[in-house]
Amino acid sequence: MQHRYYWLLKWVAVLTTLGMLLILLGGALVTKTDSGLGCGRNWPDCNGSLIPKEITTEVLIEFSHRFVTGAVSILVLILVIWTWRALKHVKEVKFLGFLAIFFLVLQALIGAAQVLWGQGDFILALHFGISLISFAAVMLLAMIVFEVDQKFDAVRVDIQKKLKWHTIGVTLYSYIVVYTGALVRHTGSSLTCTSWPFCDNSDPFKLPAKMYEWVHMGHRFAAFLIFVWILYIMVHAMKHYKEQKVVYWGWIIAFILVSLQVIAGAFIIYTHLNLIVSLLHSLFISLLFGLLCYFILLVARSSYNEKNH
Protein backbone atom coordinates (compact mmCIF):
# COMPACT_ATOMS: atom_id res chain seq x y z
CA MET A 1 0.00 0.00 0.00
CA GLN A 2 1.34 3.44 -0.87
CA HIS A 3 2.36 5.48 2.16
CA ARG A 4 -0.17 8.30 1.68
CA TYR A 5 -3.06 5.87 1.28
CA TYR A 6 -1.95 3.97 4.37
CA TRP A 7 -2.24 7.13 6.45
CA LEU A 8 -5.67 7.74 4.98
CA LEU A 9 -6.71 4.22 5.97
CA LYS A 10 -5.49 4.95 9.50
CA TRP A 11 -7.71 8.01 9.67
CA VAL A 12 -10.71 6.05 8.38
CA ALA A 13 -10.03 3.35 11.00
CA VAL A 14 -9.88 5.90 13.82
CA LEU A 15 -13.00 7.76 12.68
CA THR A 16 -14.94 4.51 12.29
CA THR A 17 -13.94 3.32 15.76
CA LEU A 18 -14.96 6.66 17.29
CA GLY A 19 -18.19 6.48 15.31
CA MET A 20 -18.97 3.04 16.71
CA LEU A 21 -18.38 4.45 20.19
CA LEU A 22 -20.89 7.19 19.41
CA ILE A 23 -23.42 4.54 18.38
CA LEU A 24 -22.92 2.73 21.70
CA LEU A 25 -23.17 5.90 23.76
CA GLY A 26 -26.08 7.15 21.67
CA GLY A 27 -27.97 3.92 22.34
CA ALA A 28 -27.24 4.27 26.05
CA LEU A 29 -28.42 7.89 25.91
CA VAL A 30 -31.69 6.83 24.24
CA THR A 31 -32.28 4.28 27.01
CA LYS A 32 -31.29 6.55 29.90
CA THR A 33 -33.51 9.42 28.69
CA ASP A 34 -36.46 7.18 27.72
CA SER A 35 -36.28 8.50 24.16
CA GLY A 36 -36.78 5.15 22.43
CA LEU A 37 -40.18 6.21 21.10
CA GLY A 38 -39.14 9.76 20.25
CA CYS A 39 -40.03 8.99 16.62
CA GLY A 40 -43.13 7.06 17.61
CA ARG A 41 -43.75 3.56 16.27
CA ASN A 42 -42.12 4.56 12.99
CA TRP A 43 -38.94 3.19 11.41
CA PRO A 44 -36.91 4.17 9.42
CA ASP A 45 -39.00 7.36 9.16
CA CYS A 46 -39.59 9.56 12.21
CA ASN A 47 -43.20 10.30 13.12
CA GLY A 48 -44.30 9.79 9.53
CA SER A 49 -41.57 11.75 7.70
CA LEU A 50 -37.90 11.19 6.88
CA ILE A 51 -36.96 14.48 8.58
CA PRO A 52 -38.95 15.13 11.79
CA LYS A 53 -41.18 18.20 11.54
CA GLU A 54 -41.60 18.76 15.27
CA ILE A 55 -38.40 18.68 17.33
CA THR A 56 -38.60 17.70 20.98
CA THR A 57 -35.75 16.49 23.18
CA GLU A 58 -36.84 12.86 22.72
CA VAL A 59 -37.14 13.26 18.94
CA LEU A 60 -33.71 14.92 18.74
CA ILE A 61 -32.02 12.15 20.74
CA GLU A 62 -33.69 9.27 18.89
CA PHE A 63 -33.34 10.78 15.40
CA SER A 64 -29.69 11.75 16.04
CA HIS A 65 -28.95 8.19 17.13
CA ARG A 66 -30.49 6.83 13.94
CA PHE A 67 -28.63 9.36 11.79
CA VAL A 68 -25.26 8.60 13.41
CA THR A 69 -25.88 4.85 13.06
CA GLY A 70 -26.59 5.27 9.34
CA ALA A 71 -23.55 7.49 8.73
CA VAL A 72 -21.17 5.27 10.70
CA SER A 73 -22.52 2.17 8.93
CA ILE A 74 -21.19 3.65 5.67
CA LEU A 75 -17.78 4.18 7.31
CA VAL A 76 -17.79 0.58 8.58
CA LEU A 77 -18.50 -0.70 5.08
CA ILE A 78 -15.66 1.43 3.64
CA LEU A 79 -13.22 0.26 6.34
CA VAL A 80 -14.14 -3.41 5.89
CA ILE A 81 -13.80 -3.36 2.09
CA TRP A 82 -10.57 -1.34 2.24
CA THR A 83 -8.92 -3.64 4.79
CA TRP A 84 -10.06 -6.72 2.86
CA ARG A 85 -8.31 -5.37 -0.23
CA ALA A 86 -5.23 -3.72 1.31
CA LEU A 87 -4.54 -6.10 4.21
CA LYS A 88 -5.72 -9.41 2.76
CA HIS A 89 -2.45 -11.00 3.88
CA VAL A 90 -3.53 -10.52 7.53
CA LYS A 91 -5.58 -13.62 8.30
CA GLU A 92 -7.90 -12.02 10.90
CA VAL A 93 -9.15 -9.20 8.65
CA LYS A 94 -11.92 -11.03 6.75
CA PHE A 95 -13.42 -12.59 9.88
CA LEU A 96 -13.41 -9.30 11.78
CA GLY A 97 -14.96 -7.49 8.84
CA PHE A 98 -17.76 -10.03 8.68
CA LEU A 99 -18.40 -9.71 12.44
CA ALA A 100 -18.47 -5.90 12.25
CA ILE A 101 -21.08 -5.82 9.47
CA PHE A 102 -23.20 -8.76 10.72
CA PHE A 103 -23.61 -7.48 14.28
CA LEU A 104 -24.05 -3.87 13.14
CA VAL A 105 -26.99 -4.97 10.97
CA LEU A 106 -28.32 -7.21 13.75
CA GLN A 107 -28.32 -4.42 16.36
CA ALA A 108 -30.08 -2.12 13.88
CA LEU A 109 -32.78 -4.74 13.27
CA ILE A 110 -33.30 -5.26 17.01
CA GLY A 111 -33.58 -1.49 17.47
CA ALA A 112 -36.11 -1.32 14.64
CA ALA A 113 -38.10 -4.22 16.11
CA GLN A 114 -38.23 -2.44 19.47
CA VAL A 115 -39.63 0.69 17.82
CA LEU A 116 -42.16 -1.14 15.65
CA TRP A 117 -43.40 -3.85 18.01
CA GLY A 118 -41.70 -3.45 21.40
CA GLN A 119 -39.47 -6.00 23.14
CA GLY A 120 -39.12 -7.44 26.63
CA ASP A 121 -36.46 -6.16 29.03
CA PHE A 122 -34.35 -9.31 28.73
CA ILE A 123 -34.27 -9.05 24.92
CA LEU A 124 -33.55 -5.32 25.01
CA ALA A 125 -30.58 -5.96 27.30
CA LEU A 126 -28.98 -7.92 24.45
CA HIS A 127 -29.06 -4.85 22.20
CA PHE A 128 -26.09 -3.15 23.88
CA GLY A 129 -24.11 -6.40 23.93
CA ILE A 130 -24.68 -7.01 20.22
CA SER A 131 -23.59 -3.46 19.41
CA LEU A 132 -20.54 -4.06 21.58
CA ILE A 133 -19.42 -7.02 19.44
CA SER A 134 -19.61 -4.88 16.30
CA PHE A 135 -17.64 -2.11 18.03
CA ALA A 136 -14.98 -4.60 19.18
CA ALA A 137 -14.61 -5.98 15.64
CA VAL A 138 -14.13 -2.46 14.22
CA MET A 139 -11.68 -1.59 17.01
CA LEU A 140 -9.64 -4.72 16.25
CA LEU A 141 -9.59 -3.86 12.55
CA ALA A 142 -8.27 -0.42 13.51
CA MET A 143 -5.60 -2.00 15.73
CA ILE A 144 -4.51 -4.24 12.84
CA VAL A 145 -4.24 -1.19 10.56
CA PHE A 146 -1.89 0.42 13.09
CA GLU A 147 0.14 -2.81 13.43
CA VAL A 148 1.24 -2.80 9.80
CA ASP A 149 4.25 -0.55 10.38
CA GLN A 150 5.35 -3.00 13.16
CA LYS A 151 6.22 -0.40 15.78
CA PHE A 152 5.18 -2.75 18.59
CA ASP A 153 5.37 -6.51 19.19
CA ALA A 154 1.71 -7.48 18.76
CA VAL A 155 2.49 -10.01 16.01
CA ARG A 156 5.28 -11.82 17.86
CA VAL A 157 3.62 -12.53 21.19
CA ASP A 158 4.26 -15.63 23.29
CA ILE A 159 1.42 -16.14 25.75
CA GLN A 160 1.59 -19.16 28.05
CA LYS A 161 -1.28 -21.52 28.78
CA LYS A 162 -2.24 -20.01 32.15
CA LEU A 163 -2.68 -16.49 30.79
CA LYS A 164 -4.44 -17.84 27.69
CA TRP A 165 -7.20 -19.49 29.74
CA HIS A 166 -7.57 -16.49 32.03
CA THR A 167 -7.85 -14.21 28.99
CA ILE A 168 -10.54 -16.33 27.34
CA GLY A 169 -12.40 -16.79 30.63
CA VAL A 170 -12.45 -13.13 31.68
CA THR A 171 -13.47 -11.99 28.18
CA LEU A 172 -16.44 -14.37 28.08
CA TYR A 173 -17.33 -13.39 31.64
CA SER A 174 -17.14 -9.67 30.77
CA TYR A 175 -20.08 -10.22 28.42
CA ILE A 176 -22.12 -11.45 31.39
CA VAL A 177 -21.17 -8.27 33.26
CA VAL A 178 -22.26 -6.20 30.25
CA TYR A 179 -25.59 -8.05 30.03
CA THR A 180 -26.36 -7.65 33.74
CA GLY A 181 -25.56 -3.94 33.50
CA ALA A 182 -27.87 -3.52 30.51
CA LEU A 183 -30.55 -5.47 32.38
CA VAL A 184 -30.29 -3.03 35.30
CA ARG A 185 -30.99 -0.15 32.89
CA HIS A 186 -33.81 -1.78 30.97
CA THR A 187 -35.65 -3.05 34.06
CA GLY A 188 -35.44 0.37 35.74
CA SER A 189 -33.41 -1.09 38.62
CA SER A 190 -30.66 1.55 38.68
CA LEU A 191 -31.76 3.18 41.96
CA THR A 192 -33.42 0.18 43.58
CA CYS A 193 -30.41 0.13 45.90
CA THR A 194 -29.47 3.63 47.04
CA SER A 195 -26.41 2.63 49.09
CA TRP A 196 -23.00 1.47 47.84
CA PRO A 197 -21.32 -1.03 47.89
CA PHE A 198 -24.20 -2.87 49.58
CA CYS A 199 -27.87 -2.48 48.82
CA ASP A 200 -28.36 -1.41 52.45
CA ASN A 201 -25.10 -0.36 54.13
CA SER A 202 -26.77 -0.47 57.56
CA ASP A 203 -27.25 -4.24 57.11
CA PRO A 204 -24.60 -5.54 54.65
CA PHE A 205 -25.65 -9.18 55.02
CA LYS A 206 -29.31 -8.58 54.25
CA LEU A 207 -30.38 -10.46 51.12
CA PRO A 208 -32.28 -8.59 48.36
CA ALA A 209 -36.04 -8.74 48.95
CA LYS A 210 -37.36 -7.88 45.47
CA MET A 211 -36.55 -9.00 41.93
CA TYR A 212 -35.20 -5.55 41.01
CA GLU A 213 -32.84 -5.65 43.99
CA TRP A 214 -31.57 -9.06 42.84
CA VAL A 215 -30.97 -7.65 39.34
CA HIS A 216 -29.11 -4.63 40.73
CA MET A 217 -26.98 -6.50 43.27
CA GLY A 218 -26.34 -9.30 40.78
CA HIS A 219 -24.67 -6.76 38.52
CA ARG A 220 -22.63 -5.32 41.41
CA PHE A 221 -21.43 -8.80 42.37
CA ALA A 222 -20.55 -9.59 38.75
CA ALA A 223 -18.62 -6.29 38.51
CA PHE A 224 -16.75 -7.05 41.75
CA LEU A 225 -15.66 -10.45 40.42
CA ILE A 226 -14.32 -9.04 37.14
CA PHE A 227 -12.45 -6.33 39.07
CA VAL A 228 -10.70 -8.95 41.22
CA TRP A 229 -10.08 -11.22 38.23
CA ILE A 230 -8.45 -8.48 36.12
CA LEU A 231 -6.39 -7.36 39.12
CA TYR A 232 -5.04 -10.91 39.44
CA ILE A 233 -4.27 -11.13 35.70
CA MET A 234 -2.53 -7.74 35.75
CA VAL A 235 -0.25 -8.81 38.60
CA HIS A 236 0.53 -12.05 36.74
CA ALA A 237 1.29 -10.19 33.51
CA MET A 238 3.53 -7.68 35.31
CA LYS A 239 5.54 -10.53 36.85
CA HIS A 240 5.90 -12.78 33.80
CA TYR A 241 5.54 -10.60 30.68
CA LYS A 242 7.85 -7.64 31.27
CA GLU A 243 9.54 -8.20 27.91
CA GLN A 244 6.25 -8.24 25.97
CA LYS A 245 5.13 -4.63 26.24
CA VAL A 246 1.81 -5.10 24.47
CA VAL A 247 0.80 -7.74 27.05
CA TYR A 248 2.38 -5.97 30.03
CA TRP A 249 0.88 -2.54 29.38
CA GLY A 250 -2.32 -3.95 27.93
CA TRP A 251 -3.33 -5.57 31.22
CA ILE A 252 -2.37 -2.46 33.18
CA ILE A 253 -4.71 -0.45 30.95
CA ALA A 254 -7.40 -3.11 31.41
CA PHE A 255 -7.16 -2.75 35.19
CA ILE A 256 -7.35 1.05 34.93
CA LEU A 257 -10.51 0.73 32.80
CA VAL A 258 -12.20 -1.76 35.13
CA SER A 259 -11.32 0.48 38.10
CA LEU A 260 -12.88 3.49 36.35
CA GLN A 261 -15.90 1.34 35.58
CA VAL A 262 -16.37 0.48 39.27
CA ILE A 263 -15.89 4.11 40.33
CA ALA A 264 -18.41 5.31 37.73
CA GLY A 265 -20.87 2.66 38.93
CA ALA A 266 -20.59 3.95 42.49
CA PHE A 267 -21.02 7.57 41.38
CA ILE A 268 -24.18 6.64 39.47
CA ILE A 269 -25.68 5.88 42.88
CA TYR A 270 -24.16 8.89 44.65
CA THR A 271 -25.31 11.32 41.91
CA HIS A 272 -28.73 9.68 41.46
CA LEU A 273 -28.25 8.71 37.79
CA ASN A 274 -26.30 11.74 36.61
CA LEU A 275 -26.39 11.43 32.81
CA ILE A 276 -22.68 12.20 32.22
CA VAL A 277 -21.59 9.67 34.84
CA SER A 278 -23.94 7.06 33.39
CA LEU A 279 -22.54 7.57 29.89
CA LEU A 280 -18.98 7.32 31.24
CA HIS A 281 -20.01 4.02 32.82
CA SER A 282 -21.04 2.77 29.36
CA LEU A 283 -17.87 4.17 27.77
CA PHE A 284 -15.48 2.42 30.16
CA ILE A 285 -17.08 -1.01 29.76
CA SER A 286 -17.09 -0.59 25.97
CA LEU A 287 -13.37 0.21 25.90
CA LEU A 288 -12.63 -2.62 28.33
CA PHE A 289 -14.54 -5.17 26.25
CA GLY A 290 -12.76 -4.03 23.09
CA LEU A 291 -9.38 -4.38 24.80
CA LEU A 292 -10.23 -7.85 26.12
CA CYS A 293 -11.21 -8.91 22.59
CA TYR A 294 -7.83 -7.66 21.41
CA PHE A 295 -6.20 -9.92 23.99
CA ILE A 296 -8.16 -12.82 22.48
CA LEU A 297 -6.62 -11.90 19.13
CA LEU A 298 -3.15 -11.99 20.74
CA VAL A 299 -3.90 -15.39 22.27
CA ALA A 300 -4.91 -16.74 18.84
CA ARG A 301 -1.70 -15.39 17.33
CA SER A 302 0.40 -16.94 20.08
CA SER A 303 -1.22 -20.34 19.50
CA TYR A 304 -0.63 -20.00 15.75
CA ASN A 305 3.03 -19.11 16.34
CA GLU A 306 3.47 -22.17 18.57
CA LYS A 307 2.07 -24.51 15.92
CA ASN A 308 4.32 -23.10 13.20
CA HIS A 309 7.61 -23.16 15.11
TrEMBL record:
Chain's role: Catalyzes the conversion of heme O to heme A by two successive hydroxylations of the methyl group at C8. The first hydroxylation forms heme I, the second hydroxylation results in an unstable dihydroxymethyl group, which spontaneously dehydrates, resulting in the formyl group of heme A.
Organism: Ureibacillus thermophilus
Membrane topology: Multi-pass membrane protein
Cofactor needs: heme b
Class of enzymatic activity (EC top level): oxidoreductase
InterPro entries: COX15/CtaA_fam, COX15/CtaA_HemeA_synthase, HemeA_Synthase_type1
Catalytic activity: Fe(II)-heme o + 2 A + H2O = Fe(II)-heme a + 2 AH2
Family: Belongs to the COX15/CtaA family. Type 1 subfamily.
Domain of life: Bacteria
EC number: 1.17.99.9
The protein's name in its UniProt record: Heme A synthase
Binding site for heme: 219, 281
